[in-house]
Automatic annotation (TrEMBL):
NCBIfam families: ABC_peri_MoxJ_2. It comes from the Bacteria. This is Quinoprotein dehydrogenase-associated putative ABC transporter substrate-binding protein. Keywords: Signal. The keyword Transmembrane helix does not apply. It comes from Paracoccus aestuarii. Residues 1-23 form the signal peptide. SUPFAM superfamilies: Periplasmic binding protein-like II. The keyword Signal applies. Residues 34-260 form the Solute-binding protein family 3/N-terminal domain. InterPro entries: Quinoprotein_dehydrogenase (IPR022448), Solute-binding_3/MltF_N (IPR001638).
Length: 274
């Protein structure tokens, strides 16, 4: 989630037909003895220092495929994350990176997920499946500030009903996603619009809350995203190796994600995958 809205602009100056010495040095940073992962230490349910996140489990799986032990460089998500981790050469791959971010080179995507509406199973909004539903007008709605659903809610005339949570926080001391879920649970919020991989795993066994994927929004911005791994720009061979592992092991990857409770959709965000 912290990476989904971060699309940075940049230019590669002084590009030459042949690789530069600097590029070669960067390419040589990749470890051949460890699967070195750059991650947020408190980004549950994705990554945690305690190795309990589903991206931790996927990292373990890729480590097994590569026959390499997994190690981590920990740094909070947000400004400076890529500079202080991947570009610094202390780790070699960022798990769970939204496709299209120019700060990294993306592998092929290994899953696609979607924003959705978290409501009480027995509440008045339990059957709502789109943000233009008139039933939402009578309830406060939690949403992470600056994310695509906020634009949809504002366009639907629900700005006055939006209750914002911060996107970039130190999750070691703050838990905005947990606060949104608690608001729905205790009735302070009628619903919360949340990124599926953040909400789904947290409520997959919850008897009171449910997640409804937003598959029917007709205007932009889009609410589904293809998720990749991020590697350094120069490391084409490393990207191809990871792409091959993704292609050959997609069924197992999907199984790990489903067991975690991550809602998976097709590549066009039109339908949930079984």
């Amino acid at each position: 989630m912290a990476r989904i809205a971060r699309l940075a602009a940049g230019l590669l100056a002084g590009a030459l037909a042949l690789p530069s010495a600097g590029a070669a040095q960067v390419a040589d940073l990749r470890s051949t003895t460890q699967f070195r992962v750059c991650a947020d230490p408190a980004n549950a349910p994705m990554t945690t220092r305690e190795d309990t996140g589903f991206e931790n489990r996927l990292a373990d799986y890729f480590g097994e495929l590569l026959d390499l032990p997994v190690s981590y460089t920990w740094f909070p998500s947000g400004m400076g994350f890529i500079t202080r981790t991947l570009r610094a050469g202390t780790c070699d791959v960022v798990m769970g990176y939204a496709q299209g971010d120019e700060l990294v080179q993306n592998t092929n995507h290994y899953y696609t997920s979607v924003y959705g509406l978290v409501t009480r199973r027995d509440g008045p909004l339990a059957d709502v499946d789109r943000l233009t539903d008139a039933a939402l007008r009578d309830h406060d709605i939690g949403v992470v500030a600056g994310t695509p659903p906020a634009s949809h809610l504002a366009r639907a005339g629900l700005a006055a009903r939006m209750r914002g949570a911060d996107l970039f926080v130190d999750r070691r001391v703050e838990d905005p996603m947990g606060d949104l879920l608690e608001g729905v649970r205790d009735g302070t919020l009628g619903a919360a619009v949340m990124w599926g991989p953040l909400a789904g795993p947290r409520i997959k066994d919850d008897p009171d809350l449910q997640f409804t994927a937003l598959l029917h929004e007709e205007s932009g911005p889009r609410l589904f995203y293809r998720i990749t791994m991020g590697v350094r720009m120069e490391e084409q061979e490393w990207k191809r190796q990871l792409n091959s592992l993704i292609r050959r092991n997609q069924d197992e990857i999907n199984q790990i994600l489903r067991e975690a409770g991550v809602p998976l959709v097709d590549d066009y965000g039109r339908a949930l995958l079984d």
